[in-house]
Amino acid sequence: MRAMESSLVNGVDLIVTSSPRFVSEYFKPRNLAAPIRIIENKVLLPDFGNVDPERSARRNGPPWKIGWFGMLRCQRSFDILASVARQCGGNLEVVIAGRPSPNEFPDFEGLVARAPHVTFAGPYRFDELPALYHRVHFCWAVDYFEKGLNSSWLLPNRIYESAFFGAVPIAAEGVETARWLADKHIGLTLNGDPEAALRAIVTSMTSEYHQQLSDALKSIPTAELADTASSCRQLIEDLAKLNISSRQRP
Q1: Burial class (CB in 10 A: 0-12, 13-18, 19+), 44
Q2: Which pTM was predicted?
Q3: 3-class DSSP string for 75-94
Q4: What are the tens digits of pLDDT across the range 64-112?
Q5: Are 171 and 194 a contacting pair, CB within 8 Å?
């Protein structure tokens, strides 16, 4: 199987991936000949260059609000969020939006209906992101769907979106997402049992500490969180400079 993978990938001129952990954990061990370029899952702004990140002050909690947005595929994430929201008795509200996987959640709306302090806003468009993130104080950037593999290696678009739009991202310890947050000096990391860690964060959170976490997001240069028409043009120019071989394609 590995020989077939190497044969296929070595037939390309450039490998594009979104996280350095994919390089170190998957591509490098296969000794591939093709060069590798990392293009992160940043907020894409070519058609919305004037999008206001809405980093103005949010109404402080409690209730504190955590947003879980995007492709929804992690049953354990739902269980943790729903359990802590129930235990906190109204001091935590969970706002979910996006597209739940029908394979992982055959009755997602039913799950939400049975979970106190959890709401589901349905799918959303890109131009709804500012208002969506502005509804919450924190962003759930935790994923156990492929623990030890994809979920441990990826840098999800949630961390770029939440930092850009002013919601404090939360990651699990030991994964690439947590390393990215630590490198930027932002966000919160769940250490040890994730449910107990999240409950401790919610019960000890203060308006002053949340303000500190929010202010830290503002220190990140926009170019580290978002791609614009200019950066997209630069990518195209860089790709055009590649020495693309003339070998016969299948």
Answers
A1: middle
A2: 0.85
A3: HHHHHHHHHHHHHCCCCEEE
A4: 999 999 999 999 999 999 999 999 988 999 999 999 999 999 999 999 9
A5: no
